[in-house]
Write a structure and sequence with these properties.
CATH topology of the largest domain: Immunoglobulin-like
Strand content: 35-45%
Number of helices: 2
Largest sheet: 5 strands, mixed
Shape: globular
Order of helices and strands: HEEEHEEEEEEEEEEEEEEEEEE
Length: about 260
């Protein structure tokens, strides 16, 4: 056996190579096929809007029974001709009976019902008297926010969301309106003015239409709710969040009150 043959056999034994010492090229091998997983996580299902048959209503009053919350008086140091000399800020605002305004009441665990478009079509946050109006505004996902400048002076609109596109833009008095990008995720979004530090508002982006802000007397109503049992969240910027359960009968009216 010659030296060339001995060397070839040694390579075959050590490395396990195919016997190609006769000069023929080795057979190409096929790469293993990656086997896809047999199961995949289900896609997230969004809210489905449509026709509601025998819908009911949830209504009630959100009230505050705690100690009086004194307003904060802010001394104005710029644009006094529009803003005045002082601004009164009320973190907790009620009527004489304790009805709490600017609380958000919403169903959090509903998957289908009336169309999301029933929240509205135009969502406007105005800057008037160096305050945002309204101070709490509900906007459905897929819609944009219009910010109006009724003061005719320089403002700077600054939102600080976690999930949605932020807005941070100067709005001079000559620019009466600006429009945000559409909201894509539900969340509570603070709004500030970088020119007037006391100006604050809250945008509540929602993914279902069962969300309202309480009126000046603390009252609210969620209408055309499909029959069922739901979790209702009550949120207030200063007082926090409460969650209650309510059952809606077909064509009926359920009363749900809450007190801070």
């Amino acid at each position: 056996m010659n030296r060339r043959l001995l060397l070839c056999l040694g390579i075959v034994l050590v490395l396990g190579l195919p016997a190609a010492c006769g000069g023929a090229a080795p057979e190409p091998t096929t790469a293993p096929t990656q086997i896809p997983p047999t199961t995949a996580p289900p896609a997230a299902e969004g809210y489905q809007g449509g026709v509601v048959s025998n819908g009911g209503t949830i209504h009630g009053t959100i009230s505050y029974a705690g100690p009086p919350v004194e307003p904060e008086i802010v001394t104005v140091d710029k644009d006094n001709e529009v803003c005045g000399d002082s601004i009164e800020l009320r973190a907790v605002q009620t009527d004489s009976a304790g009805g709490l305004t600017n609380a958000v009441v919403r169903i959090t665990d509903i998957s289908s019902g009336k169309p999301l478009s029933e929240v509205g079509t135009d969502f406007v946050l105005d800057q008037r008297g160096c305050l945002y109006s309204p101070s709490v505004l509900i906007v459905p996902v897929g819609s944009a926010l219009i910010v109006r400048n009724s003061d005719g002076i320089l403002h700077n609109v600054h939102t600080t969301p976690f999930d949605n596109p932020p807005l941070n833009v100067a709005q001079p008095g000559t620019q009466t309106e600006i429009t945000s990008d559409p909201f894509t995720f539900p969340e509570v979004i603070p709004v500030d003015c970088d020119v007037h530090q006391w100006m604050h508002a809250t945008i509540v982006a929602v993914d279902n239409p069962y969300a309202v802000v309480t009126g000046a007397d603390g009252s609210y109503a969620l209408t055309n709710v499909p029959p069922g049992t739901y979790q209702v969240e009550i949120w207030h910027l200063e007082l926090g969040t409460r969650t209650l359960q309510v059952t809606v009968e077909a064509g009926g009216t359920s009363t749900l009150n809450a007190e801070y």
